[in-house]
């Protein structure tokens, strides 16, 4: 179990770094998100590949609440076929196609009261940068979570000449190593056991808990997605209420 413990130590180190260095930035991001949700607008969320996992984690999810709008583009998200249709080769190609993000943005309506929350580990790929640029053109604040310090100096693939960390209004550093995989393996060149997903999920729930705290302090009612399996009285009714509220608000998106 030596390597398992190395991975666990690495994850704990990342979480401690987040706690020590990112609380102020998380608070700034949460305040922007709370402003959007209080006005019954949206925090739009976007990522590619494994950076869609934090999006899927936040809503719909037990303990999450209405206000977060997932923008998950299927060819950039679902590549568990690995080979064949919607496989890894296609995904790696598509996330680097400049202009693809522009086409994704055409599928939604946006408001200046919204904000855009983008997850990108390296910050250099074109689709995420497209989304960030178009969001800013539409007057949205852009919030980016990724390995900003570790990615410093990496060359963008986008013709604008900027990484997503250069474009964002607020950056939260996930403190994950740029290589992501964190454990050396005897007889192999490449490491195993990545940590970026744990970093993303950690910062997501730190942020969402802070958004909830801000809104509760403002007296704003949250439509929380309850556990429908734990047997709490009225849970199904509260779930129906949350989904109805989401449906009501999603009409304009």
Q: Key features?
A:
globular, Rossmann fold, two-stranded antiparallel ribbon, 253 residues, 12% strand
Characterize the structure shown:
- The chain is of the alpha/beta class.
- It has a single domain, classed as Rossmann fold, CATH 3.40.50.10490.
- Helices cover 46% and strands 12% of the residues.
- The protein has 11 helices and 7 strands.
- The chain has a 5-stranded parallel sheet with strand order 2-1-3-4-5. It has a two-stranded antiparallel sheet with strand order 6-7.
- Helix 1 (2-21) runs parallel beside helix 10 and helix 2 packs across helix 10.
- The longest helix has 22 residues, at 196-217.
- The termini are far apart.
- The model has no long low-confidence stretch (mean pLDDT 95).
Can you name the CATH architecture?
Answer: 3-Layer(aba) Sandwich
From the spread of the alpha carbons, the general shape counts as: globular
- Number of beta strands: 7
**Strands of the biggest beta sheet: in what spatial order?**
2-1-3-4-5
CATH superfamily: Glucose-6-phosphate isomerase like protein, domain 1
Distance N to C terminus? 48 Å
Poorly predicted sequence stretches spanning 5 or more consecutive residues: none
The radius of gyration over CA amounts to 19 Å
How many separate domains make up the residues?
Answer: 1
One letter per element, helices H and strands E, the order comes to HHEHEHHHEHEHHEEEHH
Largest sheet: 5 strands, parallel
Note the beta-strand portion. Answer: 5-15%
Helix proportion? 40-55%
User: Could you tell me the mean pLDDT?
Assistant: 95
CATH class category = Alpha Beta
| Count of DSSP-assigned helices | 11
Overall structural class, as computed from helix and strand content, comes to alpha/beta
């Amino acid at each position: 179990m030596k390597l398992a413990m190395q991975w666990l130590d690495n994850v704990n180190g990342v979480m401690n770094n987040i706690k020590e260095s990112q609380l102020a930035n998380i608070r700034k991001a949460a305040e922007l998100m709370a402003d959007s949700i209080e006005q019954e607008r949206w925090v739009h969320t976007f990522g590619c590949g494994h950076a869609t996992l934090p999006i899927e984690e936040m809503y719909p999810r037990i303990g999450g609440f209405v206000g977060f709008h997932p923008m998950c583009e299927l060819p950039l998200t679902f590549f568990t076929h690995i080979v064949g249709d919607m496989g890894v080769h296609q995904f790696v190609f598509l996330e680097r196609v400049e202009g693809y993000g522009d086409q994704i943005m055409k599928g939604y309506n946006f408001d200046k009261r919204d904000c855009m929350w983008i997850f990108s580990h390296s910050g250099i790929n074109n689709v995420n940068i497209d989304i960030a640029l178009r969001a800013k053109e539409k007057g949205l604040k852009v919030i980016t979570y990724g390995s900003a310090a570790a990615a410093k100096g990496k060359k963008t693939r986008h013709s604008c000449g900027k990484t997503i960390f250069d474009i964002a209004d607020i950056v939260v550093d996930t403190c994950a190593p740029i290589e992501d995989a964190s454990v050396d393996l005897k007889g192999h060149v490449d490491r195993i056991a990545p940590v970026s997903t744990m970093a993303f999920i950690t910062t997501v729930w730190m942020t969402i808990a802070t958004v909830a705290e801000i809104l509760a302090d403002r007296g704003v009612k949250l439509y929380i997605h309850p556990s429908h399996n734990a047997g709490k009285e009225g849970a199904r009714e509260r779930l129906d209420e949350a989904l109805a509220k989401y449906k009501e608000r999603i009409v304009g998106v």
